[in-house]
Amino acid sequence: MQVKSSIRWQMVVVIGGMVFTSFLLFSMLVRSILIDDYRQLMKKNDQQLLQIMSYNITKSIAKPIGLVHLVAIHPGLMQLDESAKLNFISQTLKEDYSFEALSIINFSDNKMTPPTQIAKNLDLQYKDLVGKDGLGVSPIHYSHLTTNDVSLTFIHNIEENGQPVGAVISDINLKNTRDKIMEYMKNHQISLYLLDQDGTSIAQPAKFGTSLLNYYTMKKIELQKNHNDTVLKDEKGQLIVKEKVFTVSKEFFEAIQNVKSGNSGEVEYYDEEVKYFCVYQPVDLPLMEKHWSILLVHSESDMTALIDKLFVKALIAGFIMLIFVSFTIIYYSEKVTKPIFQIVEMANRVRAGDLSGQLNIKLDNEIGLLAENINHMIHGLRATRRRTSETEKQIKAIAYHDTLTGLPNRMYFLIYLREMLDKSVKGRFYGALLFIDVDKFKLVNDNYGHAVGDGLLIAFAKRIVEIAGRKEIVCRFGGDEFLLFLPGYDFNDTKSVCERLVKTMREPFNISGNEFELSTSIGAALFPTDADNIDNLMEKADAALYVSKRNGRDQYNFYAEGMETVPIDERD
């Protein structure tokens, strides 16, 4: 026994030592080969990260800007009295807490509602700020709430008959955007620079503090403070600032100039003998003529630090693994352990969901019988998986489609429509919803039976799809009612579709040898003109449908103010 034990330990030392040495040499070789590929991968990851951050920044800024736009285009805004304007502004402020202030100015008397001094740190000149399409945005400036925060002033003309009669002026606090970027830099050991349309820093590495750095003019804007560290203000109550020149590396400045021109790219440079990698891209914001810019900077040492840590951990893990392997090489070298190992491997594959394998163990003992039973079990699981997959498909089809017409049902239609509207850009997406009803369908159903009525509904649905051109935007709402959503359709386009539907449904239907002459009633509502959410849009299309029925059917009507609306779920 002592001799066998000695041989086993010799095998462990020799085999384990050889394998570990080979593993060490192989790991070093792989590291040397892959380090450049890893750098490229990190660069690609930085670019993808920048795209994600650009999207998130756009998303966070889009809401308050979109709300200002909605306020500016609100019908009859300037005709509201002061109380109604204040209430409207109050409701808008509740929609997004990044607003510091929101006011409406009337150009006829220069009266501002409410009379809030917006952008205290700016010498606000309306004509200087307003640019293309009656929109304007100020440079980033210190917030009037706290000098540690930054804000921008956004202006949107209020027009009547094509002429500006007033403007919506708002201060939007960028604290949340800045804090998220600062937190991300802290957690991921990178440097991020977010610049506004004029090159002023919204967010930057913590080493720069709260100073505003303009990377286009290369000037640092600092608040003037007295000996008590109190921020100074002039006689108008505006913050007093001073400017200082600062410098960056030539390559980094070129990157800023490139992204200023709307280009994306990357650059490598040295700063104080440290190598850095920088990726940059513009950030396009809704309704803004000029873009922001975002730059991400990684030091070379930070980019390779992770792979070095992984290399050390891999060596430690490899050493531990090789010790275990060295012991198991001897202990599990017996023939009986081989089929057991195969069975364990197969069980792990089955547990992971892989049913493609099969054990090939031919033994006349309990292990052989176990392997045979496992093979039978795998065959049974395969059959069960196939049946389950087919059943799930059938259940999904039943849950989201009307079994009679094959059209999407109400549940699927509303989910599809909400996803479409959620992905759309506020203020730029529009469309129309049509409520379609088969006139006098109940008479056919009562006189000729449900089989003929069902055939009529199928033929009716087919004509709607042929005119719509897409099946997923049509649904059977219930009974003899259908919904049709027309994305990107304006009033005239929608009117044309309604006329085609009314005319087409007048053509005879041939069902089971019987010819039926029917008609259709249609109610239409426009998004977002009539309603800016699904439920209200359906209610208004339904109100227009009721007018079509009440006026003699075989016609269409668009929703108009004064039509009575009833929540869809409360209709008779």
Number of helices: 13
* General form: flat
Helicity, in percent? 40-55%
Number of strands: 21
The first-to-last residue Cα distance is 92 Å
Sheet/helix structural class: alpha+beta
For the biggest sheet, the summary is: 6 strands, antiparallel
Mean pLDDT rating = 81
Strand content: 15-25%
Low-pLDDT stretches are 1-8, 119-123
Rounded to the nearest angstrom, the radius of gyration is: 35 Å
Structure report:
The protein is an alpha+beta fold and 572 residues long. Helices cover 47% and strands 21% of the residues. The chain contains 13 helices and 21 strands. It has helices at residues 2-72, 82-95, 126-129, 175-188, 250-260, 300-331, 337-351, 366-400, 410-423, 441-448, 450-468, 491-505, 534-550; strands spanning 99-106, 111-113, 135-137, 141-142, 150-160, 163-173, 191-195, 201-203, 212-214, 219-223, 241-245, 265-271, 274-283, 292-299, 431-438, 474-478, 481-487, 509-511, 514-516, 520-527, 555-558. The strands form 5 sheets. Strands 1, 2, 3, 4, 5 and 6 form a 6-stranded antiparallel β-sheet that branches. It has a 5-stranded antiparallel β-sheet with strand order 8-7-14-13-12, sandwiched between helices. It has a 5-stranded mixed β-sheet with strand order 16-17-15-20-21, sandwiched between helices. α1 (2-72) runs antiparallel to α6 and α7 (337-351) runs parallel beside α8 (366-400). The longest helix has 71 residues, at 2-72. It starts with a helix and ends in a 14-residue tail after the last strand.
